[in-house]
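Slack export, channel: ligand-projects

TW: morning all. Re-posting the request from yesterday since it got buried. We need the structure predicted with the small molecule present, not the apo form. The ligand is NAP; the SMILES is in the block with the sequence. No rush, but it would help planning for next week.
GE: picking it up
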Amino acid sequence: MTAEYGPWGIVAGGSDGVGAAFARAMAARGINLVLVARREPVLKETADAIRARHGVRVRTLALDLSEPDAPAALAEATADLEIGLFVHNVGGDDSTTAFLDRDLESHLRMVRRNCVSALDAVHRFGAPMAARGHGGVVLVTSGAAWAGGATRATYGATKAFGLVLAESLWAEWHGRGVDVLALVLGRTDTPSFHRVFGAEGLAPGDLADPDEVAEAALTHLGDGPTWIYGSADPTGGSPLGALSRRDAVLAMNPR
Ligand SMILES: NC(=O)c1ccc[n+]([C@@H]2O[C@H](COP(=O)([O-])OP(=O)(O)OC[C@H]3O[C@@H](n4cnc5c(N)ncnc54)[C@H](OP(=O)(O)O)[C@@H]3O)[C@@H](O)[C@H]2O)c1
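GE: finished. pasting the full token output, ligand included:
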């Protein structure tokens, strides 16, 4: 694993939930880590636990990926490292609010966090991977990418961006030794999920386990372009694919 995807990996959004699970799963495979998130205490706790358990090196970077200068800060903090695996996990929506009830800046922050930071990173870290002829990229996306839906306009659009970006990079790089996976998630048991759904007073239903998600993604990193976690046909198409676009949008509407 380290020969193919090491010696260092980055998890953007790597301090809790699915991101921390990726970090643990990568460390268990001997990959040194750069973990990026905003809250330093959570980052530190996750990093300390991984160092103690797996003995790999872990660098933490407290950074808000919604900020315009975040990609440059990530580049500077990792300039001395050979990055063999990049996971863009950060990307959840922190509320289910109608489009016009959010100010424009909050939409732009989500686009910078979910799209611009991912695009910058795959360009920056993908180039040396392609030149070396090995490496891996995982972009974590969502069933929200399948079709538009009320209260998730920008979130769904950014998730569709990640899905198509990953699939496109797979199309360009799979013959060059670089594995790319669009990881499509449904409801998953993370702190962010509980913050949002708890605030909404909604029943969570069946939730995927983050550690099982991360294990599946790393196991199937070479089975891209797309892995739909929890699906009976994980490399298959959109579950809404048989519907008209109109019916798919109506099916996505949570109300
Ligand atoms: N959970 C679900 O039910 C679900 C369903 C479908 C898809 N997904 C996808 O799975 C991925 C992970 O979701 P998640 O539920 O774990 O929540 P998340 O909020 O996307 O990810 C949490 C991680 O990202 C960090 N983070 C959040 N905002 C950040 C920012 N602006 N800059 C840097 N780091 C940031 C968090 O730490 P800090 O808060 O300290 O920054 C934490 O480490 C997302 O891409 C989401 O779209 C999740």
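GE: first-pass observations. Strands lie at 8-12, 32-37, 58-62, 83-88, 135-142, 178-185, 226-228. The domain at 2-252 is CATH 3.40.50.720 (Rossmann fold).
TW: perfect, thank you
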